[in-house]
Amino acid sequence: MEFTAKQIAELIHGSIEGDENAKINTFAKIEEGKKGAISFLSNPKYTHYIYETESSVVLVNNDVVLEKPTNATLIRVENAYECVAQLLQIYESMKPKKSGIDSLAFVSPSAKIGEDCYIGAFAYIGDNAEIGDGCQIYPHAVIYDNVKIGNNSTLYPNVSIYHDCKIGNNVVIHSGTVIGADGFGFAPNADGYDKIPQIGIVTIEDDVEIGANTCVDRSTMGSTYIRKGVKLDNLIQIAHNAEVGENTVMAAQVGVAGSTKVGKWCMFGGQVGMAGHISIADGTQVGAQAGITNTVKKADAPIIGSPAIDAKAYMKAYAVYRRLPEMYQELNALRKEIEKIKSE
After folding, report:
1. Kindly report the CA angle at 202 between 198 and 207, in degrees rounded to 5?
2. How many CB atoms lie within 10 A of CB 340?
3. Model's pTM, two decimal places?
4. Distance CA 64, CA 80 (A)
5. 3-state SS string over 149-167?
6. For residues 137 and 2, what is the distance between their CA atoms, to the nearest angstrom?
7. Dihedral (CA of 309, 313, 319, 320) sign
8. If you ran DSSP here, which 8-state letter would residue 296 be given?
9. Which position among 48, 174, 240, 277 bears the catalytic label?
10. DSSP character for 44?
11. Which of 74, 113, 264, 323 is least enclosed, having the fewest CB within 10 Å?
12. In terms of C-beta density within 10 A (0-12 exposed, 13-18 middle, 19 or more buried), how is residue 218 classed?
C-alpha cells in the first residue's frame, strides 16, 4: 500500500510543508527513518533527529519551531502522537484477515460459529460455545464449553477461555492469557486448606484489549468484570470478583486482589499492587510500584508510594527521607554538644 503526503494530510486534517506528492509505504521511528517511511515527532528530546532522518514524511505538532530546513516533507497537526496512532489503526484495518476453519482445528458439533471467522490449526472450541461474526481464533487457542464471544474479537495463539465466560465485541486477547481460571480461594483447616469452589465467571465487555500472559480469575460467585474499553498490559493479575472500570489502563505487572473495585478512566503504572476489598475512585492516577492498601475516595487524584499517598505529599516526604543520613549526623552532633554542656 502506498500513499502520498497529500492523502495522509487529508486523512488527519494536517497542513503540508514540502512535497505533497512524497510517497510513503511504511512507518519508522524518526531515528531509524528510511526513504518511503512516515515518522512522527512529539517528544522535544528527539527534535535533532528531524534534521537527519531519511524518512520521506514526518508528522510534527503545529507549535514545533525548527531551526533549519529539513529534507523530509512535514505534515503539521494538532497532536502528532494521536495522529500516528490513527494512521496505524487505519493501516492495521487494511491488512487482509484470515478466514475459514482449519482442518486441524476441533469445533464441537454443538458450537455456533459466526460468519467470516478464522479458526486456526489445533484450536479447540467446546460444547455450546458461541463465536460471533468476524472473529479470529489463532492456533492452539482453547475456548471451553458455553463460552460466548461477540463479533470481531481476536484471540491470539495459546489463549485459554474457561467455561461459561463471556467476551464482548472487538476484544483483543494476546498470547498466553488465561481468562476464567479459578480464583485463589482456600479455607484453612487442621490438615491444610480446603479449596473453595469458584462457580462464577469472567465478563469482558466490548473494546477491551488484554496483553500477553495476563490472568483474569473467575469469581467465587457472580462475575469478575473487565468493563468496556479497558486496556491491560502483559503479565497482569486480576483476582476473583474484582471489577475494572470503563477505559481504565494498567501497565505491566499490576496486581488487583480479590473483590477490589477499580473506577473508570484510572491509570496504573507498572507493578502497582492493590489490596483486596477496597475501591479506587474514578480517574485515579497511580505511580509505578505503588501499594494501595485502603480505599481511594478522591477522584482524579495522583497517588504514589507504598502505602500509596497523595503524590505531592509523597514527594515532600521523600525529600526529607533523602536527607535522613545527613540529619542523623546532625542529630548525633547536637546530642554530643548537649552532653558536653551538661557535664560542665
Report:
1. 170
2. 9
3. 0.87
4. 11
5. ECCCCEECCCCEECCCCEE
6. 29
7. negative
8. B
9. 240
10. G
11. 323
12. buried
Please say whether the beta carbons of 19 and 73 come within 8 A. Answer: yes
φ, ψ of residue 288 in degrees (nearest 5): -55, 145
Kindly report, residue by residue over 219-266, the tens digit of the pLDDT.
999 999 999 999 999 999 999 999 999 999 999 999 999 999 999 999
DSSP line for 105-139: -EE-TT-EE-TT-EE-TT-EE-TT-EE-TT-EE-T
**How far is 178 from 201, CA to CA, in rounded Å?**
13
| pLDDT one-digit tens code per residue, 139-178 | 999 999 999 999 999 999 999 999 999 999 999 999 999 9
Half-sphere exposure of 268 (CA within 13 A, CB side): 34
The SS3 assignment for 92 reads helix
Strand, helix or coil for residue 175: coil
Residue 240 among the catalytic residues: yes
- Report the Cα–Cα distance between both ends of the chain, in Å, rounded: 90
Q: For residue 164, report the phi and psi dihedrals to the nearest 5 degrees.
A: 75, -5
* DSSP tag of 98: P
H-assigned helices in the chain: 5-12, 80-93, 311-322, 324-343
